[in-house]
Structure formats: C-alpha cells, structure tokens
C-alpha cells in the first residue's frame, strides 16, 4: 500500500552497482530503512542519489509493510531546498551533528510526530539563521531532543537551586554526591537554553568556546545516563573544531 509522508535522511549505504539502502526518519512511520533502486548511476541526470544526502528533507511516496524491515520508495523529491546547509561548512557540520544524534537515539520504527516536526523545523531554522544563533543550536537541540525522548529537565535555576543534577535531571540546592552535575554558571546557561522559546533568541546567550564544549559533552553524558545503549558520537570533535566553540 502506498503512503505519502515527509522524511529526513539519516544515513545512506551503497547496495549493488546502482542502489542505496537509505535510513529515513519519516513523519508517518518513524525510522525506516528503504531500498532505492537506480539511485546511483554513471549518468548524472539519471542519478538521484544526491537528493538522499543526510539531513535532506524529502517528500516521499512509499510502500509500507509492517512485517518487513526493509521498505521501498516509489517516489521522492526534496521537501525543503536548503540555501546554506550544504554550502556553509559550519551549518553543514551542525546538521550532521543533529543527524548523528538522532541516529543514536531513534531505534524503534514508531511514529513520533512531535519529534519529527521539531527536527524538521530546527533544520530549516539552521538553514536561515545567523551564525550567532547557530553556535548555540547544537546545545539547544540536544536539550530539546532529550525532552522529546522523555527525560526533560525539572525545576529552574535560581540562587536557591544553582546546581543541575544530570542523573536526576533536576536543579538542586547543593551539589550532589556524584560527578554527574553542572556547576552554577553552567547550570544557569543550561536553564537559559532550555527555556528558550524562539531559536533566534539563542544569539543572546553568550559563552566562550570552552564553556560551550564542556556543556555539549555534559549533555551527551546526560543522554548516556538515560539511554543505556547510547554509544560514543564521532561528530562533536569536528563540530568544536569548525565552530571554534
């Protein structure tokens, strides 16, 4: 049965001489793997594999069978045309970080509409935003993804609760008796990021590159604490090098 759905490309793997197996986070079915025949060709006009780059947002017509692990695509085209993400090295690196993080977190083929729309919207905002916004976008996306996955932060930073306990996801009055917590300044910045209602407001949250680097690794530790099968990511060192952040 054919279905129309939007989707975000997570990963592509070559199969045979001309085909690809493409992992896509879809609007209707969550994460799915698709066989795409003829996506690679020696004739540039015949090859559509460039549409299947990780991070691309697609409009799809797909066959879906609940009992199969590998589905098929009938039609696909770009659902959003990036102006900068594939051309600007900073924005491209941020997009690839977001995509790798999604790959690490999305294991089950289940519909997650709120998460899908949040991700698609954030990728589009990445495309059009100033670099002052983009610098903090990985931090913001990581925190908000955690919230979507069910481990949101509880409470607020204040002079009475100045420490963020990463094991509990809660702001506390005293440093917990373990290493998985943030100091007062990092806790305050995290609260500002998490409470941000408009991506453009991220430009107003200022921090130096070392603080930004430490926060991102702390947030990834937060994921490891709450997702037992969360494995090491490869993109953060590249991200920090490119962002100088």
UniProtKB/TrEMBL annotation:
SUPFAM superfamilies in the cross-refs: Nucleic acid-binding proteins
Record-linked InterPro entries: DNA_rep/recomb_RecO_N (IPR022572), NA-bd_OB-fold (IPR012340), RecO (IPR003717), RecO_C (IPR042242)
A Pfam short name: RecO_N
Domain DNA replication/recombination mediator RecO N-terminal intervals: 1-78
Keyword set, alphabetical order: DNA damage, DNA recombination, DNA repair
Keyword DNA damage assigned: yes
Family membership noted in the UniProt record: Belongs to the RecO family.
PANTHER family xref list: DNA REPAIR PROTEIN RECO
Function: Involved in DNA repair and RecF pathway recombination.
Stated name of the protein: DNA repair protein RecO
Taxonomic placement: Bacteria, Pseudomonadati, Bacteroidota, Chitinophagia, Chitinophagales
Gene: recO
């Amino acid at each position: 049965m054919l279905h129309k759905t939007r989707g975000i490309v997570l990963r592509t793997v070559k199969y045979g001489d001309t085909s690809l197996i493409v992992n896509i986070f879809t609007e209707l079915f969550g994460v799915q793997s698709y066989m795409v025949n003829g996506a690679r060709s020696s004739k540039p006009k015949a090859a559509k594999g460039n549409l299947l780059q990780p991070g691309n947002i697609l409009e799809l017509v797909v066959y879906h069978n609940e009992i199969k692990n590998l589905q098929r695509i009938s039609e696909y085209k770009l659902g959003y045309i990036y102006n900068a993400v594939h051309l600007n090295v900073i924005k491209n690196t941020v997009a690839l970080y977001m995509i790798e993080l999604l790959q690490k977190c999305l294991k089950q083929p289940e519909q997650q509409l709120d998460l899908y729309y949040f991700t698609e919207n954030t990728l589009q905002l990445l495309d059009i935003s100033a670099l002052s916004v983009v610098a903090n976008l990985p931090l913001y996306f990581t925190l908000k993804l955690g919230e979507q996955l069910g481990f949101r932060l509880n409470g607020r930073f204040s002079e009475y609760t100045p420490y963020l306990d990463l094991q509990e996801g809660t702001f506390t009055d005293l440093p917990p008796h373990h290493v998985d917590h943030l100091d007062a300044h990092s806790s305050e910045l995290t609260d500002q990021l998490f409470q941000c209602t408009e991506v453009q407001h991220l430009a107003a949250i200022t921090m130096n590159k070392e603080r930004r680097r430490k926060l991102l690794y702390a947030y990834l530790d937060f994921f490891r604490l709450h997702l037992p099968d969360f494995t090491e990511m490869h993109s953060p060192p590249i991200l920090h090098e490119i962002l100088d952040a």
